[in-house]
Automatic annotation (TrEMBL):
Cofactor note: Binds 1 Mg(2+) ion per subunit. The magnesium is bound as Mg-PRPP.
Family as reported in the entry's similarity comment: Belongs to the UPRTase family.
GTP-binding keyword on record: yes
Name this protein carries in UniProt: Uracil phosphoribosyltransferase
Entry keywords, A to Z: Allosteric enzyme, Glycosyltransferase, GTP-binding, Magnesium, Nucleotide-binding, Transferase
Domain spans labelled Phosphoribosyltransferase: 6-209
Pfam families: UPRTase
GO terms, molecular function: GTP binding; magnesium ion binding; uracil phosphoribosyltransferase activity
Pathway: Pyrimidine metabolism; UMP biosynthesis via salvage pathway; UMP from uracil: step 1/1
Primary gene name: upp
Top-tier EC class: transferase
Length: 210
């Protein structure tokens, strides 16, 4: 899968295992997702351009790297579980702007319907990170990417915690130009579209709604 990056790191692997455990509390689940998201943010911003700026340290003058100022970012959270990744990413890139997209699946047609969209007015000048912890069937991701592409951001990356092979295939088929970042690829989906072995419903575990 050419456009998929699986972020391998012992800390991430360990924290993900803790998140998967059935007995992990809501508070712990939330803080683990935030910690992993910091590491995800580190990885997905690896190619940000730098420029040199003259600075003075207490001992001398040097040309030091700073982020190129024209590189503006926006993190788009797919409601509602995207919030869990958003919080961690913002800690590492506090200057990023935030957008939200909400989609639900019509129970009759199974087509994702948009019920909420709010993005910064200058989204066309920003590199976009679309975040959602679980890439399962890929239906929501495909619909969100299609809609957000219409807004013409500078670039788009899709960032998740856990992916199913089916979802990765679906997104890559519909949007081969979009890089996908995940920390693990699980076995398959169950008959309800949940990732196996997965970690259950990320939104419920994050917000304690079950
Ligand atoms: N959404 C979730 O929260 N969990 C899954 O396993 C699949 C989709």
């Amino acid at each position: 899968m050419s456009n998929v990056t699986v972020i391998n790191h012992p800390l991430i692997a360990h924290k993900l295992t803790l998140m998967r455990r059935e007995e992990t509390s809501t508070a712990k689940f939330r803080s683990l997702l935030k910690e992993i998201s910091l590491l995800l943010a580190y990885e997905v911003t690896r190619d940000l351009p730098l420029k040199l700026e003259e600075i003075k340290t207490p001992l001398g003058v040097m040309e030091a790297p700073v982020l190129a100022p024209e590189k503006k970012m926006v993190v788009i959270s797919i409601m509602r579980a995207g919030q869990g990744i958003l919080d961690g990413m913002l800690e590492l890139i506090p200057s990023a702007r935030v957008g939200h997209i909400g989609l639900y699946r019509d129970p009759r047609t199974l087509i994702p319907i948009e019920y909420y969209l709010k993005v910064p007015h200058d989204v066309e000048e920003r590199d976009m990170f679309i975040v959602d912890p679980m890439l399962a069937t890929g239906n929501t991701a495909v619909a969100a990417i299609s809609r957000l592409k219409e807004l013409n951001p500078t670039s788009i990356k899709f960032v998740c915690l856990l992916a199913a092979p089916e979802g990765l295939e679906h997104v890559q088929e519909e949007h081969p130009d979009i890089p996908i970042y995940t920390t693990a690829i699980d076995e398959c989906l169950d008959e309800h579209g949940y990732i196996l072995p997965g970690l259950g419903d990320a939104g419920d575990r994050l917000f304690g709604t079950k």
